[in-house]
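Lab notebook, bench 4. Still working through the backlog of constructs that have no structural model yet. Next entry is a single chain of 285 residues. Request: give me the structure tokens for it.
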Amino acid sequence: MLSFTGSRLDRADHVRADPERLAGYMNWKARVLALDGLIPALDDSNRLVWGTLADVPEDAELCFLGLDEGKACFAAVPPRGDATPRMANPQLWSLMATLPPDDLALYGGARSLTDWHARHRFCAQCGGDTKLAKGGWQRNCTACEASHFPRTDPVTIMLVEHEGRLMLGRGLGWPEGRFSALAGFVEPGESIEEAVAREVLEEAGVRVRDVTYVASQPWPFPSQLMIGCHSHTDSDELTIDETEMAEVEFFTRAQVQAAMAGDGPFVAPPPHAIAHHLMQWWIEQ
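Model written out:
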């Protein structure tokens, strides 16, 4: 299972869309995710810690995460969002390695949602104050009445194959020897296939064909949807975009297998990254 997938919560849109029904769940049975900013508290079993509505200030903005065995689950919006790259926070890497998969998925959704609210307290249309609505799945402007919705940014992450070898790259600022699949945001007016082709051409200088979808993964830093794809290229003559990439190379199947086993010519992506699963998928084809 991909990290951040498989949440056990029922998102219960029929509840969050009905203010009276949602209010009925805000009782002593309701649970509130214990967060320090956007970092969750863990118990002795490395599971998420939950409190009650009595543990948060009366004026706190609460996001309704969903129902867990009939109990409503909430998370409070923190004072500030988190603009720090995940690589700069070792605590996040530790969390991803220790939280059980279902808790990690739940935390990922809560993190993305509450972080978005912390960043959108003012209207993008008129600059007026916004207030939480629809249980946290919307914000409404108090001045112009515009509605704003939590965003998810699509990112293509793609394997590029040439005659049985796999193209991988090392981004600027990455540790020496660490390679992964190329990736980039889908731009307005693009299909997934067009975004794959453009990003590969921009970063590596080759044209791809036969783009196919493999898998996807929510990535809450802050709110991407990683769309894993596979493609082919008829050329291995690279023109590297040195403003984004430090290295781009082709690796044989044996080299990729060795790297995935921890004994190869490069350091493979960690297991919680979709790139790791894409490379394992490619090996097994």
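Notes after review: Residues 153-284 form a domain with the Nucleoside Triphosphate Pyrophosphohydrolase fold (CATH 3.90.79.10). The CA atoms of residues 46 and 225 lie 26 Å apart. Flag for follow-up if needed.
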